Automatic annotation (TrEMBL):
This is Ribosomal RNA small subunit methyltransferase E. The keyword Acetylation does not apply. Specifically methylates the N3 position of the uracil ring of uridine 1498 (m3U1498) in 16S rRNA. Acts on the fully assembled 30S ribosomal subunit. One of its GO terms (cellular component) is cytoplasm. Keywords: Cytoplasm, Methyltransferase, rRNA processing, S-adenosyl-L-methionine, Transferase. InterPro entries: Alpha/beta_knot_MTases, PUA-like_sf, RsmE, RsmE_MTase_dom, RsmE_PUA-like, tRNA_m1G_MTases_N. It is found in: Cytoplasm. It comes from Azospirillum lipoferum.
Length: 234
């Protein structure tokens, strides 16, 4: 269970209504029952339920069960999609170990689509489900050119480009030096040609192809991350 509090032996942790409800009525836990908790910094701990109140639950942290894991230093920049599909992206990218989820507005993106709280809630749920001990950081939703303006020079940005001329991602990643990286996937309507031309001029951008067919944006995210994982082992 993800908690937003420091974790140390004897520490008391209060849970909000939603989490209290989940423990009591979904998992059917009671006072004295153990719960595994993590906060993204201190590893996984065993905690014990002290009691439930009206809309709350308190726990006491007992001992550490796992040290904090190390996630790959991989960001995912993606153009916000429709509700169900953006939920899917947050969930799958979290399961695949992405360290930062960063919605960016491209020229063909609807800027009203991002709900960071919902994105984060999906990421928290996915982290809990896959037993990852961190939740991806959320980048502030900004236009793509703003996200790229302060781009760290040592971080490669793999641009998933459907145009067909890009080298296959597997080939590119096999030769890539290890280090910080990011993947960029466009919106349903793809990137604008002028946008692709501007991206091509940036020294840290490396176009990659995901095969001969045009994948939906959410499929492209999973395909790119699966290649990343199988080639880097992360
Ligand atoms: N309407 C666009 C077109 O026909 O050019 C297709 C956009 S595609 C549905 C959404 C995004 O997924 C693209 O911007 C790209 O980032 C990624 N994508 C889809 N298929 C791809 C492929 N075969 N190789 C690389 N990226 C791909």
């Amino acid at each position: 269970l993800y908690v937003d509090s420091p974790l140390a032996e004897g520490q008391s942790v209060g849970l909000d209504h939603e989490r209290a409800h989940f423990l009591r009525h979904v998992l059917r836990l009671d006072r004295g029952d153990p719960v595994a908790v993590f906060n993204g910094r201190d590893g996984e701990w065993r905690a014990v339920i002290d009691g439930f109140g009206k809309g709350w639950c308190s726990l006491t942290v007992a001992e550490q069960r796992r040290r904090q894991d190390v996630t790959p230093d991989l960001w995912l920049l993606f153009a916000p999609l429709k509700k169900g599909r953006i939920d899917f992206v947050a969930e799958k990218a979290t399961e695949m170990g992405v360290s930062r989820l960063w919605p960016v507005f491209t020229r063909r993106t609807d800027p009203n689509r991002v709900n960071i709280d919902r994105l984060r809630a999906n990421a928290v749920e996915a982290a809990e489900q896959c037993e990852r001990l961190s939740v991806p950081e959320m980048g502030e939703a900004v236009p793509l050119d703003r996200a790229l303006a302060d781009w760290p020079a040592d971080r490669k940005l793999y641009l998933c480009a459907e145009a067909g001329s890009a080298r296959p991602i597997a080939e590119v990643l096999r030769d890539a030096p290890p280090g910080p990286a990011a993947l960029l996937v466009g919106p349903e309507g793809g990137f604008d040609q002028s946008e692709l031309d501007e991206l091509a001029k940036l020294p840290f951008v490396v176009p990659v192809g995901l095969g001969p067919r045009i994948l939906r944006a959410d499929t492209a995210v999973v395909a790119a991350l699966a290649c990343w994982q199988s080639l880097t082992g992360d």
